[in-house]
């Protein structure tokens, strides 16, 4: 999307003209790393950010610690999956717009292909006993992971109740609004943002940002060599704000959204399943402050309650599959699209897989396109407003609301594993004590003993399989 000819990494801009040799890291070399990252990015946003920090800051030295955290803080201010946006940002900073597109796309594509395959197995063979057993064990682990997310985000955002009572009130009201009053998620976000904007004028200390994720630090005593993008490396020209560049990127982004959406409307009409999926997940992409866990209640409201693309238990199964694959957790939308395309037979009964795969791909496109636009067009704008309370206070309030929203999601999952489901996904009156016990053990492993997400999921999956095969669950 950039019109200038230089493809040098940003560190080259700090050297004298005579020193402008070939880039230390070529786009081809970066491509290999981003592709590798797409296949190993397990563990949710925290794990993915830790992997990038280890590889890019400590080992490869492509970017310094402070610049890495600086970029991460920018991405935390935007809606969308922050780990994927961080990869896009660093790729953009190093190799311009195409570098950002490559980094962000390769963060997503491996997960898309894996999820399409797993979703097909689920849709075609979901009633196979061993598949059902694995999913039976994974779902309690997912409930525990969501509880861990409530604890992690809440501990970073809410501070002590005596220091930030307004933030605690926002979280509590958001929980009640989503869990019991069925208030739409966009309304919760807007109300929180308005509260933050007013709060920074009357109680600014409560809305002071608490910092970023706190990525891992380099080992004590280490003397790292200079990074390609170091602390004193000037911002390269392509990362500085220009109105012409902003207009160009916004125009290209709008075109990339309008062309497929216009094609779907011409093909299926506005009420067609694929068209509605595209429009719904575009809206979802603009509301993902706080990551995937925050937007999942909104996805549930639309995909399950409003459009009927899948059932509540199927949504749980999709999140379970999403937790076991690399890539951002919001990739669960690919499962939603696949199951919805399969159920609605978007290409007819003779092309179930093709139609479902098309739906999953389309949903992924509309979900992630805004993230690329936010980084490529908005990066310089976000940088210029970073640290200004009138800009960060509404986002701090939104993050507080996100804590309550995620807590409501945890309650939803616990209810769904506490009661067995009968035909058509309806609840029975029988409490599933085994599933609750698995969830409790998973929560203890995550919160008390700090186990990783993948060992907990693997352990619960094997336990679920053994319990099902033994007839105890």
Task: Give a verbal description of the structure.
It is a single chain. This protein is mainly alpha-helical. It has one domain. Helices cover 68% and strands 2% of the residues. Strands 1-2 form a two-stranded antiparallel sheet. A hairpin with a 5-residue loop joins strand 1 (419-421) and strand 2 (427-431). Helix 1 (27-40) crosses helix 4, helix 9 runs parallel beside helix 13 and helix 12 packs antiparallel against helix 13 (352-385).
Task: Give the domain tally.
Answer: 1
Portion of residues in helices?
55-70%
Q: Radius of gyration from the CA trace? A: 23 Å
Number of DSSP strand runs:
2
* H/I helix tally: 16
What can be said about the biggest beta sheet? 2 strands, antiparallel
Which class of secondary structure composition applies to the elements?
A: mainly alpha
Q: Average pLDDT value?
A: 82
Question: How is the topology of this model organized?
Answer:
Blueprint: H1 27-40, H2 44-59, H3 65-76, H4 82-125, H5 129-157, H6 165-179, H7 185-202, H8 243-268, H9 273-285, H10 292-306, H11 312-323, H12 332-344, H13 352-385, H14 389-418, E1 419-421, E2 427-431, H15 433-447, H16 453-470
Antiparallel strand pairs: 1-2
Helix pairs in contact: 1-4, 2-4, 3-4, 4-12, 4-13, 5-11, 5-14, 5-15, 5-16, 6-7, 6-14, 7-14, 8-9, 8-13, 9-10, 9-12, 9-13, 10-14, 11-12, 12-13, 15-16
Structure keywords:
single chain, 473 residues, mainly alpha, two-stranded antiparallel ribbon, 16 helices, 2% strand, disordered N terminus
Quick description:
By secondary structure, the chain is mainly alpha-helical.
């Amino acid at each position: 999307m950039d019109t200038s000819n230089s493809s040098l990494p940003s560190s080259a801009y700090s050297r004298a003209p005579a020193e402008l040799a070939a880039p230390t890291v070529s786009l081809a070399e970066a491509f290999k790393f981003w592709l590798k990252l797409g296949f190993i990015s397990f563990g949710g946003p925290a794990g993915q950010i830790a992997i990038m920090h280890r590889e890019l800051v400590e080992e490869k030295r492509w970017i310094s610690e402070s610049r890495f955290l600086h970029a991460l803080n920018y991405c935390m201010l935007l809606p969308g999956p922050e780990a994927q946006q961080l990869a896009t940002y660093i790729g953009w900073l190093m190799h311009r717009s195409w570098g950002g597109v490559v980094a962000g796309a390769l963060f997503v594509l491996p997960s898309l292909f894996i999820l399409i395959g797993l979703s097909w197995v689920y849709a075609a063979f979901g009633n196979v006993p061993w598949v059902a057993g694995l999913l039976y064990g994974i779902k309690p682990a997912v409930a525990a992971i969501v509880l861990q997310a409530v604890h992690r985000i809440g501990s970073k955002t809410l501070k002590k109740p005596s220091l930030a009572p307004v933030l605690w009130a926002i979280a509590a009201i958001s929980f009640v609004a989503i869990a019991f009053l069925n208030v739409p998620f966009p309304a919760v976000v807007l109300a929180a943002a308005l509260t933050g904007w007013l709060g920074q004028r009357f109680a600014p200390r409560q809305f002071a940002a608490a910092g970023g994720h706190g990525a891992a630090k380099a080992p004590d005593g280490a003397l790292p060599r200079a990074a390609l993008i170091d602390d004193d490396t000037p911002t390269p020209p392509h990362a500085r704000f220009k109105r012409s560049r902003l207009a160009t990127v916004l125009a290209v982004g709008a075109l990339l959204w309008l062309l497929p959406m216009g094609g779907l409307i011409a093909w299926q009409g506005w009420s067609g399943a694929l068209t509605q999926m595209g429009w719904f997940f575009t809206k979802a992409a603009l509301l993902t402050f706080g990551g995937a866990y925050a937007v999942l209640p909104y996805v549930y409201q639309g995909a399950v309650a409003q459009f009927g693309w899948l059932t509540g238990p199927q949504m749980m199964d999709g999140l379970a599959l999403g937790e076991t694959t690399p890539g951002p957790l919001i990739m669960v939308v690919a499962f939603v699209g696949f199951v919805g395309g399969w159920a609605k037979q978007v290409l007819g009964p003779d092309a179930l897989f093709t139609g479902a795969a098309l739906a999953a791909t389309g949903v992924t496109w509309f979900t992630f396109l805004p993230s690329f636009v936010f980084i490529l067009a908005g990066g310089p704008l976000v940088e210029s407003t970073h640290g200004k309370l009138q800009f960060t206070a509404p986002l701090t309030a939104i993050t507080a609301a996100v804590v309550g929203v995620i807590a409501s999601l945890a309650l939803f999952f616990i209810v769904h594993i506490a009661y067995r489901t009968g035909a058509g996904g309806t609840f029975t009156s029988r409490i599933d004590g085994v599933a609750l016990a698995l969830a409790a053990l998973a929560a203890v492993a995550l919160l008390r003993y700090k186990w990783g997400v993948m060992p907990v999921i693997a352990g619960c999956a094997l336990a679920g399989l053994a319990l099902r095969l033994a007839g105890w669950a």
